Amino acid sequence: MASKWTDIRVIVFDADDTLWDCQSWFDEVERKCCALLSPWATAREVSEGLFATERKNLPLTGYGTKAFTLSLIENAVRVSGERLTGDIVMQLIELGQQLLLFPTTPLPEVRETLEQLSMSRRYQLVVFTKGELMDQEGKLQRSGLEQYFSHMETVSNKTEKEYRQLCENLGVAPEQTLMVGNSFRSDIAPALTAGAYAAHIPYHVVWELEKSEEYPHERLQKITHFGELLQLLG
């Protein structure tokens, strides 16, 4: 490993779809919503309408399960021509509530890798995620991974500004940190712009609003599985 990586003191981890599966649960709720609304619209119309509604609401509601549920209901009312019955509205609400409780089982190699990194005592391990505080805290607790992290920070959005603020809160320079995440747009690009190192672990499903163009960088490594972090760090 090149010496430029040896100054890393803090490893910053994204949560959803990096430490545990999340997007698949949202996709399943979307499929069930499409089935509920089939009397009024095709699955494609429902999905396209939901995406447009989420994008419209983002500046007002931000990211997270509650924001998604509001968009789910708003879109359902619209595509049905305001003909939804109370029982369907309740089913949509229940689908949203299920997303607050799904099991956050660690992805392959996550627990073992975090344990080895923690035992090495070379790094401070941190969770840095966006969304709703209680929801993100609940997912970390359900995952059983909380013991490996000394700090968790949940923000409304991830940009260079938020990443620099995280580093300031931790008392480290960005170039002393490594950001690990699945989203190039939210995890990797902001960290690189701030001056940090980054390890990109793509996930097999990607939310439409997280899709972005990728690019090479001297402080970036793309890996295929979580355990490669140990090799990356030497």
Features:
234 residues; 47% helix; 6-stranded parallel beta sheet; elongated; alpha/beta; 12% strand
Mean pLDDT: 94
Label the structural class: alpha/beta
Taken from the alpha-carbon principal axes, the silhouette is elongated
Radius of gyration computed on alpha carbons: 19 Å
First CA to last CA: what distance?
6 Å
Task: Give start-end ranges of low-pLDDT stretches.
Answer: none
Strand order of the largest sheet: 3-2-1-4-5-6
Major sheet summary line: 6 strands, parallel
Strand composition percent: 5-15%
Write the H/E string, N to C: EHHHHHEHEHEHEEH
* Annotation field: number of helices: 9
Helix percent band: 40-55%
Oligomer: single chain
**How many beta-strand segments?**
6
Topology:
Blueprint lengths: L9 E4 L9 H14 L6 H19 L3 H15 L6 H13 L11 H11 L3 E7 L2 H11 L7 E5 L4 H11 L6 E5 L2 H11 L2 E4 L19 E3 L5 H5 L2
Parallel strand pairs: 1-2, 1-4, 2-3, 4-5, 5-6
Q: Care to give the gist of this entry?
A:
The chain has 234 residues and is of the alpha/beta class. It has helices at 23-36, 43-61, 65-79, 86-98, 110-120, 133-143, 160-170, 184-194, 228-232, and strands at 10-13, 124-130, 151-155, 177-181, 197-200, 220-222. The protein has a 6-stranded parallel β-sheet, with helices on both faces.
Task: Outline the structure in words.
By secondary structure, this protein is of the alpha/beta class. It has helices spanning 23-36, 43-61, 65-79, 86-98, 110-120, 133-143, 160-170, 184-194, 228-232; strands at 10-13, 124-130, 151-155, 177-181, 197-200, 220-222. β2 (124-130), α6 and β3 (151-155) form a beta-alpha-beta unit. The longest helix is centred in the first third of the chain and has 19 residues, at 43-61. It is elongated and about 60 Å long.
